[in-house]
Amino acid sequence: MLDPRVMDPDQEIVQRAGLDDRELDEVVRVLEGLHRWRETERRMSEASSRYMKLGETDMRALRFVIATQNHGLIATPGAVAAHLGISSASTTKMLDRLAAGGHIRRLAHPTDRRSLAIEVTEETRRTARESVGKAHARRFDVVARLSSRERVLVARFLEDLSDTELAGVGLSEAGPDGAGPLPAP
Fold this sequence. Notes:
Protein name: MarR family transcriptional regulator
CATH topology of the largest domain: Arc Repressor Mutant, subunit A
InterPro entries: HTH_MarR-typ, MarR/SlyA-like, WH-like_DNA-bd_sf, WH_DNA-bd_sf
Strand order of the largest sheet: 1-2
Strand content: 5-15%
Number of strands: 2
Number of domains: 2
Radius of gyration: 21 Å
Distance between the termini: 48 Å
CATH class of the largest domain: Mainly Alpha
Pfam families: MarR_2 (PF12802)
CATH architecture of the largest domain: Orthogonal Bundle
Order of helices and strands: HHHHHEEHH
Structural class: mainly alpha
CATH superfamily of the largest domain: Winged helix-like DNA-binding domain superfamily/Winged helix DNA-binding domain
Helix content: 55-70%
């Protein structure tokens, strides 16, 4: 129930003055679409995690290492820890799990004797491409079908929506999984 006419009939929280029933129906349709997308995204993430037998943080780490490798950069334990916003001890335990599961390899860093290079195994890369990669390609296709004007509008809407949510919980920027630049090698 995302309809404020049902959940907040006295307008104590959601002010809807100036919106007629048709406009309210449109707003509710958008909110219900967002809710369906969040649920779909959650189920897809859980299915991928179960399929690969990994937790969400492990999956985020693998996506980071794959993206780093795709850009010709070297993923290090420190870069993984910074990206995930976790301690170096937690990172070591996670990398141990991923290595034991055959998902990553730790190699000598080619230019820094004090560091390690982290690489995703070919089998894990292939599995991620077949599951998460193909799902992303389908989402990309949906967005690509929009006109340029529609993409700008949707992007602005999602950015504004994210900003309201972040402001509501006292945050000023996306968390450690935000879409920031990849680390330097």
